[in-house]
Amino acid sequence: MDAMLTAGEPVTVILRKHGRADVRYPATALDDDGTRAAVRAPWAGPPVRDFGFVRFEHGDVFTEHYWRDRWYAVKEVRAADGRRKGWYCDMARPACVRDGELTSVDLELDLWVPADGSAALRLDEDEFLASGLPETDPEAAGQARQALDELAARARAGTFTELTAVP
User: Dmax of the chain from CA atoms?
Assistant: First the structure.
């Protein structure tokens, strides 16, 4: 059984990506109800990462939501001044919490939901296909596609704030 995170305690987030080294970074636990774990972390990448549709940069804060029963993780991104940039969503296997670590296995499909209400962007379909997942694990690939469709529908409905509210 998964462990529970305690609000205010440090946690190491581990993101596993197919064929690449794990990404690890420190975060602070915000909430854990046994199904969804929420953590907060500063941008842990290079000083600036410009995707064209959004820039992640020093000072950005990510409030990340991981579910133990859903095939996605949702990361609310805010600038250093508190302005919401949007939500970056990873299609991922259900998360696991053990020994002060939260692990998420990325399935390569992503969705960007801009805070300004403009259309969500489906991302990385080419990486998803190149990963071989649709052939090697069709069940997981189907779950990833279903999760992407669910989140895209939420984006159209404007319900991301509800999805990522922290008590």
Answer: 44
